[in-house]
Amino acid sequence: MSDYFKNINEIIYEGPDSDNPLSFKYYDENRQVLGKTMKENLRFATCYWHTFTWPGLDPFGGATFERPWMSSGDPLKMAEMKLDEAFDFFNKIKTSFFCFHDRDISPEGSNYKETQKNFLYIIDLIQSKMETSKVKLLWGTANAFSHKRYMSGASTNPDPEVFAYKAAQVKDCMDATKRLGGSNYVLWGGREGYETILNTNMGLEIDNLKRFLELVVDYKYKIGFDGQILLEPKPHEPTKHQYDFDSASCLAFLRKAGLENEIKLNIEANHATLSGHSFEHEIVYAIANNALGSLDINRGDTLLGWDTDQFPNSVLELILPFYHIFSNGGIGKGGLNFDAKIRRQSIDPEDLFYAHIGGMDICAKTLLAVEKMINDKKLSDYVTKRYEDWQKDLGNYIYNKGTTLESIHQKVLDENIEPKPRSGNQEYLENILNKYL
Questions:
Q1: What is the pLDDT of residues 174-193, one digit of tens each?
Q2: Which contacts (CB < 8 Å, 24+ apart) does range 109-112 have?
Q3: pTM: predicted TM-score of the whole model, two decimal places
Q4: pLDDT per residue as tens digits for the range 121-174
Q5: Which of 298, 388, 396, 404 is the most buried (most CB within 10 A)?
Q6: How many CB atoms lie within 10 A of CB 258?
Q7: Distances 16 to 22, 32, 361, 435 between C-alpha atoms, Å
Q8: Cβ-count burial 34-68 (b if 16+ within 10 Å, e if not)
Q9: Are residues 299 and 417 in contact, defined by beta-carbon separation less than 8 angstroms?
Q10: Kind and range of the H or E element at 38?
């Protein structure tokens, strides 16, 4: 019986003038924007872990959430109760998708066989619930970072038994993702890195990570999974030196492994800022390398040094990421996954809805602003003009296969080329951007 959210009705669009906190002000799922509905463009997903599994911990304090499925008792019964409440939430908030780690949905057993049995039992229940719900699976993934067996990494662990355990776990999770019609499978290497070089064979660890990714890609084809395989960049925490630090390091590794055409990136806003980049930088870098797969849509806190995973609440922070995404055809098979958690002081059932409503509304509001930016073409025309000389004589000459460094040198001498600095007009462009906020 599902009753944790019993006092909350299905969330509907009421428009920006509504004072109802349990309604959408900007997210009108059927509204046409850039040739698609908002629902089709934004492809929202609720994450299972922060929304239903995270108990309100932080680095300095214990659980603050007292939800029925977090009580002591039979772990499998608690998982069933959590599943009932999750689908009640999905159906009321109306995100198009959900995402899960295997350990979010089912408990570990005393050995792997028992763990697998628990997992498959819950997958059966999820499949049954999806048959009567409109929500779909955006992606599944394996939690290969929380248990102490993974304290020294998973596929990069010095113990091959840990590698094998992770491989078994991922195999089951990939099977379940395919069975549930998932659009993607995500590889989140939470501890794929090292703490100190004193006890680390980096070359072997990188080779082992490469081998693991090869196995995953091979298995994708073996089972006929037609979704995307995604690697998620993550800097620093929990491991000091992460091999998947940012988009650039992930793509460099994938190219070295020869897997750049097989694996794309799942980029998270908070991970981007923790790596010292902006969200838009990571997105544009991935787009430039044909590697954008999906997004975890959240934000960090600039005054805190860890992954706070807060819900997005600023058009300013999202307008450039969205501008580049939707100027380049949208998110494809990916989506906007709310890999975000409410604050540990937000203990009411309604708080989960307020957070998702706010995130969905701010994304919808940003999408409307981006539609105007794209249609006005002021920014795109400026950038085109700034680089237009690359389509003219000298630009074409530089790219000609017969051109050499010596011939360019001679051309500078013969034609007395003396470049004059050109303004980048940053303040002018910032003023244009502010017009859309």
A1: 999 999 999 999 998 789 99
A2: 112/165, 112/168
A3: 0.96
A4: 999 999 999 999 999 999 999 999 999 999 999 999 999 999 999 999 999 999
A5: 298
A6: 12
A7: 12, 17, 10, 19
A8: beeebbbbbbbbbbbbbbbbbebeeeeeeeebebe
A9: no
A10: helix 38-42
